[in-house]
Write a structure and sequence with these properties.
Helix content is 43%, strand content 16%. With 166 residues, the chain is α+β, with helices and mostly antiparallel strands. The chain folds into two domains: 109 residues, Arc Repressor Mutant, subunit A, CATH 1.10.10; 56 residues, Dna Ligase, domain 1 (2-Layer Sandwich), CATH 3.30.1490. The strands form two sheets. The chain has a three-stranded mixed sheet, with no helix packed on it. Helix 2 packs across helix 3. The chain is globular. Bound molecules: zinc ion (2 copies).
Length: 166
């Protein structure tokens, strides 16, 4: 958990009331329902990994998910997190994002979208599908049959830009 997130989390804890507990329960029920609807057996690992991915937008690696899950109680191993990710991936709830050679990152946003990758800190964030004008796949040379595409924009994010100015 990032520092700011941790602060937010602690603040949330402080103001926990019945409504929030109900909302959390509702979210948990929704996750269980989603897993079941895909024919997945609900295991604590699958639940934890999917809930973790849904709550973040930073496209974490296996190790980042593992660190995050083990913060409260060290119960997960890299193998169990990886197995849970594979199961979620097979039923289409999670996708693998490969923007760096040899580094698999995971995304619970399985709808169409593009990505921005900061070459400074490696952070990846989603770009809405409608951000770019339609790309004309008919311009491909004949003989190439397009199935899908997405755009990866490389650059420097505002967090790194601010840091370099200080
Ligand atoms: Zn950055
Ligand atoms: Zn994404």
């Amino acid at each position: 958990m990032k520092c700011q997130e941790k602060k937010r989390y602690n603040n949330n804890l402080r103001s926990v009331n019945v409504i929030q507990v109900n909302a959390m329960q509702q979210k948990a029920d929704e996750i269980v329902k989603t897993l079941k609807s895909k024919g997945l057996r609900v295991t604590p690992q699958r639940f934890a990994v999917y809930a973790n991915l849904l709550a973040r937008e930073d496209h974490p690696t296996v190790d980042q998910i593992l660190t995050n899950l083990n913060q409260d109680a060290p119960t997960s191993s890299q193998a169990t997190v990886y197995a849970a990710l594979q199961a979620l991936r097979e039923v289409g709830l999670v996708r693998e994002v490969l923007l760096e050679e040899g580094v698999s990152r995971y995304d619970a946003n399985v709808g169409l979208h593009h990505h921005f990758r900061c070459k400074c800190c490696g952070a990846i964030e989603d770009i809405g599908w409608d951000t770019f004008e339609c790309i004309d796949l008919n311009k491909l040379r004949s003989g190439l049959k397009a199935e899908r595409y997405e755009v990866t924009v490389q650059g420097i994010c505002d967090r790194c830009e601010t840091k370099s100015k200080v």
